[in-house]
Amino acid sequence: MALMAKSMGEVTYKDISTAHKWALIVLISMGSSIIYAPMYLKGVFYDPLMQALGCTNADLGLMVSMYGLAALICYLPSGIIADKFRMRTLATGGFLATAVLVFIYATLPSVSVCLVLFVLMGVTSILVWWGTRFKVVRLCCEEEEYAGKIGVSYSIYGVTGLVIGLINAAIIAAVTAAVGPAAGVQAIIIFLGVMIAILGVVSYFLIPDFEGEINKDSKLFSLAEAVEAIKHPGVLWACIAYFCVYAVYQGATYTTPYLTACFNADGNLVNIISLIRTYGIGLLAGPIVGWIATKIKSPSKTIAGCFILTIAVLIGFILFPQDPNGVVFISVLVVLFGFTTYGAFSIGSSPLSEVKIPMRIFGTAAGLLSVIGFLPDVFIHTWYGSMIDAQGVAAYSGIFGIEIGLAVVGILAVLMCLRALKKNTANGVEDEESAEAPAEA
After folding, report:
1. Which of 76, 120, 183, 302 could make an S-S bridge to 293, C-beta 3.0–4.6 Å?
2. Among residues 33, 42, 48, which one has the least CA distance to residue 62?
């Protein structure tokens, strides 16, 4: 099957076997989990990473912010590039280039060098690779199947993250005990670099040339296509909703130091809870939320429901006494928080399919979604890290309060998105796009 991908010429999802389609979804889903793991190690191994690099909370947040800034600049052009180049080329190049930078990161350089590396990883993993994330899944299914397929994709993302995270936890525990904490962190970064390189090689042989995936006659950067994507009904509201989804999803990473600082939780317990919250819960959240979105035929309504549950959990964090005896209960809330935020994030891009974006500009629209949606990476980690450095345990109530505010804005955004969709349906906009999309696909 792998070698056939290179020799079968241009294909559609109807021309390749079910096994091949699922292999592509698995590849791209695993890749989306592993390629970003080095940049977001602090989400699980917060304290070991900070100790190994010899940096502060703010420094650790600044690294992710620099990555987020580079990503912000690259998201829109990455979507445009995804409409101009083959998925195989972008996936292979993005994986291999990122792997090289990860190996350099494994030397545990200074904070200044790490900042440069995180910027460069933003280029390789976003400008080059990111455009394949949503588009490969879209190329493997019908338009109305996308919400369900992307939900399953994030489930695979979760399984991969959980397995890789457990392996990393075992590696860091064993190497730290034998050599030291810095060596433990080095070992897991090297392991991630090897895995990313393997994915790059597999991508070259597995991803076929899809019919309609590129517009050979258009310019590399088409302002007209970008404007068309921005003006498409409901897109901007979907982008704002995704901004809130991602901001709250990233805020969940601060439940890791929250458990340690406020409840004096054991370090190994915190690592396991963080893995379950970050990845393991995706085994349930991705497919369940994706199934609900498909069943009720509205990803937007499903996202709103996730936001409401998230607000309830955040209020629980603020009101529950910070007593070590309550660590079990608060751990359950942390996992529930992971479910609601992961569930919303797993279908966060689905409104693009809901508003029937034509395939020829789907990558561009996904790039726009990413520019706005992932903007929190630029400021939220530095902001929250500085709050913790300045206020200590008192900072967490403020962080969770901010997260509640973001969730409320997210609810308003999806409601406005639904309002725009209803209005445009009445005006016949969706019918026009529905007629166009199959021809473009």
Report:
1. 302
2. 42
How far is the C-alpha of 169 from the C-alpha of 60, rounded, in Å?
Answer: 20
Max Cα distance, the chain (Å): 68
- Give residue-wise pLDDT tens across range 323-356: 888 888 988 999 899 899 988 988 887 777 676 6
Give the pTM. Answer: 0.69
For 210-232, letters b (16+ CB in 10 Å) and e give beebbbeeeeeebeebbebbeeb
CA distances from 383 to 50, 70, 108, 254 (A): 17, 17, 24, 12
Report pLDDT digits (tens) over 312-326: 999 999 999 888 888
Please, what is the Cα angle at 326 between 321 and 331, to 5 degrees?
A: 110
Give the bridge partners for 11, in sequence order: 210
Is the CB of residue 400 less than 8 Å from the CB of residue 314? yes
438 exposed, middle or buried (CB, 10 Å; 0-12, 13-18, 19+)?
exposed
Among 331, 185, 323, 336, residue whose Cα is nearest residue 270: 331
pLDDT tens digit sequence for 38-66: 998 887 788 889 999 999 888 988 998 89
For residues 100 and 174, is the Cβ–Cβ distance under 8 A? Answer: no
Provide the token pair at 216.
Answer: 């050979």
**Three-class DSSP category at 209:** strand
- C-alpha gyration radius of the chain: 21
The span from the CA of 97 to the CA of 129, in Å, is 10
243-257 burial: b if 16+ Cβ within 10 Å, else e = bbbbbbbbbbbbbbb
- Residue 356, pLDDT score: 66
What mean pLDDT value characterizes the chain?
Answer: 83
